[in-house]
Amino acid sequence: MSTHAKRERLLLADLLEAAGPEAPTLCDGWTCRDLAAHVVVRERRPDAAGGLLLNVLKARLDKAMEEYTAKPYEELIQLIRTGPPRMSVYALKQIDEAANAVEFYVHAEDVRRAQPDWSPRDLDPVFSDALWSRLEKLARLTGRRSPVGLVLRRPNGQTAVAHKGAPVVTVTGEPGELTLFCFGRQAAASVTLDGDKEAVAKLTVAALGI
């Protein structure tokens, strides 16, 4: 596994373990047990994971989630730590980095920021750049349901258009915070929003994300 994805995987496992199975997350209605099961199903049950995007597979996904949430929590944590099966597409380094570095970063923050004693995490510049690079590629996908024009801006001035339209709201923040914002965690992201007041209000509750 590549550096960023592996590190974020292990961090997520540690956070889930420390929080405990019944602790809340930023994923609406999900406990840490639910989130852990989601991560494992996504990697180990490709026949069911498609239900995350395709309604025709939703029943299969629900069944797999029910099966894995019933497993001992410690087993789920260990499955996350050990990574995908050898024959999984996620076992390929390039796919692991492309698909999991952001996924695990977001879910780690889902656990961290849902706890009352959470503290900000300083991301190293290399990882921040990696998140920005990935966000540039995903911006239009994550912003496709934005009700207003959406521009993402780093403090260094780099920008990416997530959604064309008017009026325009510009969201400024570090790449990690912009990533959380674009993946539907607007309320938890440390960003500034500039634009029409009504447009900003609409954007903060929009269903952003993949």
How would you describe this structure to a colleague?
- This protein has 210 residues and is α+β, with helices and mostly antiparallel strands.
- It is 52% helix and 9% strand.
- The chain has a four-stranded mixed beta sheet.
- A hairpin with a 5-residue loop joins strand 1 (149-153) and strand 2 (159-163).
- The longest helix has 20 residues, at 93-112.
- The chain is globular and about 50 Å long.
- It comes from Streptomyces virginiae (Streptomyces cinnamonensis).
- InterPro entries: CHP03085, DinB/YfiT-like, Maleyloyr_isom, MDMPI_metal-binding.
- This is TIGR03085 family metal-binding protein.
- Pfam families: MDMPI_N.
- Residues 12-104 form the Mycothiol-dependent maleylpyruvate isomerase metal-binding domain.
The description of the largest β-sheet is: 4 strands, mixed
User: What is the H/E string?
Assistant: HHHHHHHEEEHEH
Low-confidence stretches: none
Global Rg: 17 Å
Question: What's the number of helices?
Answer: 9
First and last CA, distance? 23 Å
Q: Which strands sit side by side, in order, in the main sheet? A: 2-1-3-4
Integer average pLDDT: 92
Kindly name the structural category: alpha+beta
Strand content bin: 5-15%
In one word, what is the shape?
Answer: globular
Helix content: 40-55%
Overall strand count: 4
